[in-house]
Design goal:
single chain, alpha/beta, 8-stranded mixed β-sheet, 4-stranded antiparallel β-sheet, 10 helices, about 30% helix, binds iron/sulfur cluster
Amino acid sequence: MKKDGTRKTIRASIGSLGVLGLRNIKLPAPPTTLYLMLGEKCMFDCAYCPQARTSHGSTNFLSRVIWPKTDWGLLKNAVLNAPKIVKRICFQVVSSKGYVEEALFFVQDLSKTLSESRESSTNARVLPISVSIRLSDTNDVKRLFDAGAERIGLAMDVVSRNNYTSIRGGDFDRDFRFILSAGERFKGRITTHIIVGMGETDEELFNAFSEFYKRDITVGLFAFTPIKGTRMENAKRPLLNRYRKVQFMRYLFSMNKEFVPHFDENGKLVSVEGKGVGSIVKSSAIYVTSGCPNCNRPYYNEEPLGPMFNYPFIPDETERIVNEFTERVRHNEVVFKE
Ligand code: SF4
């Protein structure tokens, strides 16, 4: 209950409500993470986001997912009885007035509820909490960890140095350095998000991956999705074949695999060389949603009928995927199609 007597509410993705049994909907791929959203109408103005200050889109949306409002007490109870498929909870925090304190309240409250339930029942499950939030002070990151978060997501989103300020606002170097410093201070507990299709080159993606993975920062990859009412509503999505190359490259970093990328004069990735890259490219896990463990974000970027940029489960069509975007696969070399 809030001070004025009204009950606290929170938004949850429609898929999360479905998996918790709070909405009767068909789920072609159930979420393995519960996605909760705090705040609305952001103080920032990212050109691609329906929550942005000047967006005319519905605040019911984040990416292409709908987020109905739900009573917090009801939702907490449902979380305690979440089915086994649910392995994580993620708060997606919109930067509205007082958002850090708001996030701290919800993380602490949920964490307390989860630990009380563990104390009273040995069968209660441990559900780690992630918080995806925009911060500029590593002490706030610490406060969220102290409140009970297991991982913090600090989104870079745009890795194009030229387009960063116009698309996202802020300063590329300052924001990039901040995420790196959080990675150094909180080893293995930071995730970042990168959106492919923001005017960046493959080489810029390679350089960003390299800096992030060097500091043990996990990268959650997204494909740009135009949303009605946003400044980028008419911009194009990245080509699927290009996205596949980027997924492959990210996977090589995540596996700590040494490889040499070859770029053309425009920074486009044409091939990679490295021991065993030809068999690695056939790993189905490359094409699955990346980020915090068990974050599968079903249909954030895609219609259920496809094309699938991120598979929310292990795809059973990996051979077809690989044939579509590679020109030549040898043991130590993978050459990509145009
Ligand atoms: S990768 Fe997934 S769980 Fe982690 S912060 Fe991002 S959306 Fe949340």
